[in-house]
Design goal:
It is globular and about 40 Å long. The protein is built from seven helices and five strands. By secondary structure, the protein is an alpha/beta fold. Strands 2-1-3-4-5 form a five-stranded mixed beta sheet. It is about 45% helix and about 20% strand. Helix 5 links the parallel strand 4 and strand 5. Helix 6 crosses helix 7.
Length: about 150
């Protein structure tokens, strides 16, 4: 069930995705939230920084800095997380992940769920369109991002 807060924070993650595109990178954004307050925001910077692990979720978590615990946070991401990001979510014990879409890239929702993470998939039209258009216009960058 979509909550009003989920839609609000997903809009902010989508803003981050657009920032990534405007910088010449991939349109994947993330927001980390605790008690309905933003802890950090980030976006995919793999192209901009030449860093193969600078995915949107990883950038967001780096910006969050050291946290005593992530057990009371929610991670919002515009695209279903890859295995690297999913592993980090599990490692940090983030209990809930809200995913903008998994149409263009089916990530690791089953893995996350099997590890006790509450996974919500919004299938948000704006997230689907942004990623779908990007994949059509920049297939080489997309294939590089997913190691194809």
């Amino acid at each position: 069930m979509q909550r009003e807060e989920d839609l609000k924070f997903m809009r902010l993650a989508l803003e981050e995705a657009w920032t990534g595109v405007n910088e010449g990178g991939l349109p994947i954004g993330a927001v980390l939230v605790r008690n309905d307050e933003i802890v950090a925001r980030g976006h995919n910077r793999r192209v901009q920084e030449g860093d193969p692990i600078a995915h949107g979720e990883m950038d967001c978590l780096r910006k969050a800095g050291r946290q005593a615990s992530y057990r009371d946070t929610v991670l919002y991401t515009t695209l279903s997380p890859c295995m690297m990001c999913s592993g980090t979510i599990v490692q940090f014990k983030i209990p809930r992940v809200v995913i903008g879409e998994n149409v263009n890239f089916g990530g690791n929702e089953d893995f996350l769920s099997s590890q006790g993470v509450d996974v919500e998939i919004l299938n948000d039209a704006a997230c689907i369109d942004l990623m779908g258009n990007f994949i059509q216009e920049h297939p080489e960058l997309w294939n590089e991002d997913i190691a194809e």
